[in-house]
Amino acid sequence: MLVPYESLTQLPSDTFDNLVKEYLISQVEDGSFSGDGEHSMDRAMIQCKTALKQGLLVVEYNEEEESIGIRRKEDIVSQESAYD
């Protein structure tokens, strides 16, 4: 299930920031993001939040696993297409 951006903006700011940080850290681990230092992370967080607002990134809640995470929109679409 996708979580609407408007719902994300109603979260406490620390919760929203932690969700974004978790996504960015996962990108460092797989090589998609190479941030050094606090300023780099701050910029990346702003870019990630902008991408969420624009719909380039989406937040997906997995009811079965009771997990939540940020994903690229095209990854969600291609995953759903694979099940059709």
Task: Describe the structure in your own words.
The structure is a single chain. The chain contains four helices and three strands, in the order βαααββα. Strand 2 (57-62) and strand 3 form a beta hairpin. It has one domain (2-83): Arc Repressor Mutant, subunit A. 60% of the residues lie in helices and 17% in strands. The chain has a three-stranded antiparallel sheet with strand order 1-2-3. InterPro entries: UPF0270, YehU-like_sf. Belongs to the UPF0270 family. Pfam families: UPF0270.
Sum this structure up briefly.
The chain is an alpha+beta fold and about 80 residues long. About 60% of the residues lie in helices and about 15% in strands.
Distance between the termini: 17 Å
**Order of strands side by side in the largest beta sheet?**
1-2-3
Helix and strand run: EHHHEEH
The number of strands is 3
Question: What spatial form do the alpha-carbon principal axes imply?
Answer: globular
Number of domains: 1
CATH topology: Arc Repressor Mutant, subunit A
- In CATH terms, what is the architecture? Orthogonal Bundle
Poorly predicted spans: none
Helix content: 55-70%
- Can you give the mean pLDDT? 85
> Describe the biggest sheet?
3 strands, antiparallel
Pfam families: UPF0270 (PF06794)
InterPro entries: UPF0270, YehU-like_sf
Protein name: YheU family protein
Family: Belongs to the UPF0270 family.
